[in-house]
Amino acid sequence: MAIAGAGAVGRSIAAELLENGHEVLLIDKSPAAIAVEQVPQAEWLLADACEITSLDEAALQRCNVVIAATGDDKVNLVVSLLGKTEYGVPRVVARVNNPKNEWLFNESWGVDVAVSTPRLMSALVEEAVSVGDLVRLLRFSQGDANLVELTLPPESALAGTRVGDVRWPEDTSLVTIIRGSRVLTPTAEDSLEEGDELLFVAAQAREGQLEELLSARREPERPRREDHPEESGEEL
Description:
Oligomer: single chain
Radius of gyration: 25 Å
Distance between the termini: 85 Å
């Protein structure tokens, strides 16, 4: 995979990907950014990622992922568009520096996943303090889908229900259950528990239905009526 932008963000991404066994090419036009000694396992290319000749040299058509991680939104959009339209890269991830530009980072510009640091930080804060509220963590451009999270409140009607017995909204998929220190891949037999952090990929149009389903309160138990001998006609 190729990363356009070899600054602190690009190098950090490269180091993580290399640690996970991926081959990584870092591209930057600034000689000062070419710090081979900081990520020695990566390939490096001193070039302008907005130029077709540079991307030809990088053999971008061989990459399965391109990450546009520069500090300039205009550059990230151009890299994304070229990667998708000229080289047919299957997956394009782009960094959004200015939240005002977020609306541009969609499939029209070749972006499959847009990562906005301010939005992600605010989402993580909401996720840390919210129980029973749906939190949007990440937006996927294709299919108008989002990665969303909800912590199941104690009073949820779904607490104790098997995953396979829940009628989830259309265009919604439960992908992970985080329970304490465990990360569970949900099966139909798994039961939902209060306090579970549930991660879904869901169409934006279904988010309201999903939140309503997960936050619906269980019916309070009615007090059981005790039988009294005088009411049953029995003698004392």
